[in-house]
Specification:
Blueprint (H helix, E strand, L loop, with lengths): L1 E2 L26 E2 L10 H15 L19 E3 L3 E6 L2 E6 L14 H16 L4 H7 L5 H6 L5 H8 L7 E3 L1 H5 L13 H4 L12 E3 L5 E6 L10 E5 L7 H9 L5 E2 L4 H6 L35
Antiparallel strand pairs: 1-2, 3-6, 4-5, 7-8, 8-9, 9-10
């Protein structure tokens, strides 16, 4: 499939086009093609097998990103920098400074990947139960991966598909989903998407904007404040609100929507009385009374 804009260049070099609009003689094209055949390396197969065993030993309350799937094999393993360690309380997963997505290994510089390896080794060494436990699970390559200098493409591949990078367990939605269903990490910025795993259940992070696009909002004050304003945290590039958000960020300001906006009403819909025309005021939802008020009694903010 080819997408070709209709812009054309019709001016002499250095001349301003009429109305300040520039066009091109040679339209640029974006080709949508099939992925090259992607195979699972032996490194990834071993890492996934080990992660599945670890996850079977982790309680539901200790899973890093949402509930476990009904079928264990339906976990999707995200190449997001998965630093699994075992402490006295069991298995825990920390995330590396950066994760290397599978396709990004082909532009990854070995010396920079080796820094990730060294940082991972330092963390694992702080949890001395980890390597013996991994050996017991059959992941005997763990120590070699942590101790071997990454110096070429083979080393980058081994690290990219290892337990220490490739096994952040997620549902399909949290991994690759698209709004309006579930926002996935591949499509939405992590500083915003990460709030999905720490927000109150009765605060709606993702909302539909007036132009039909989907964005993310955050409260402007702590829960209990009664302030129903929301801060626009993310909108897609084609949204009518994208320009305002970009300008706010450029000027070091916040893009804030009022309590009676559709975005604020959606965000606080589970905390306010059904039919309310404003998100400001006392909290009436199932979470009423939770949190600490700062300025307005027991009013909400999420």
């Amino acid at each position: 499939m080819t997408v070709a804009p209709t812009r054309r260049r019709s001016r002499t070099p250095g001349a301003l086009p009429p109305g300040g609009v520039e066009s091109e003689n040679h339209p640029w094209k974006i080709r949508l093609v099939e992925h090259p055949q992607r195979f699972e390396s032996s490194f990834f197969r071993a890492a996934k097998r080990t992660a599945q065993q670890i996850l079977s030993d982790v309680s539901d309350d200790d899973l890093p990103y949402g509930p476990r799937p009904t079928v264990p094999e339906h976990w999707e393993m995200h190449h997001g920098g998965s630093l699994w360690v075992k402490g006295q309380g069991g298995w825990r997963m920390f995330r590396a400074r950066v994760g290397i997505e599978w396709s990004m290994q082909f532009c990854a510089e070995p010396v920079k990947v080796d820094r990730l390896r060294r940082e991972a080794a330092e963390l694992v060494d702080a949890f001395p139960l980890t390597l013996p436990a991994l050996r017991d699970l059959g992941y005997e390559e763990a120590e070699d991966l942590l101790r071997t200098l990454v110096k070429d493409a083979d080393g980058v591949e081994a690290w990219t598909d290892s337990l220490f990078n490739a096994c952040v367990p997620m549902s399909h939605g949290n991994h690759q989903g698209i709004l309006p269903k579930v926002p996935g990490e591949h499509h939405y910025p992590w500083p915003v998407k990460g709030a999905d795993f720490v927000r109150y259940d009765d605060f709606q992070l993702w909302v539909t904007l007036p132009d039909g696009t989907h964005g993310a909002v955050a409260p402007v004050d702590r829960r209990g404040s009664g302030d129903g304003h929301v801060r626009l945290a993310f909108v897609p590039e084609g949204s009518a609100a994208a320009g305002s958000l970009a300008e706010a960020q450029d000027r070091g300001l916040m893009a804030v929507l009022p309590p009676n906006s559709s975005a604020a009403l959606q965000a606080f819909s589970s905390q306010i009385t059904p039919g309310s025309r404003t998100a400001a005021g006392p909290q009436a939802g199932p979470g009423a009374g939770r949190g600490t008020a700062r300025r307005h009694g027991d009013r909400h903010s999420a």
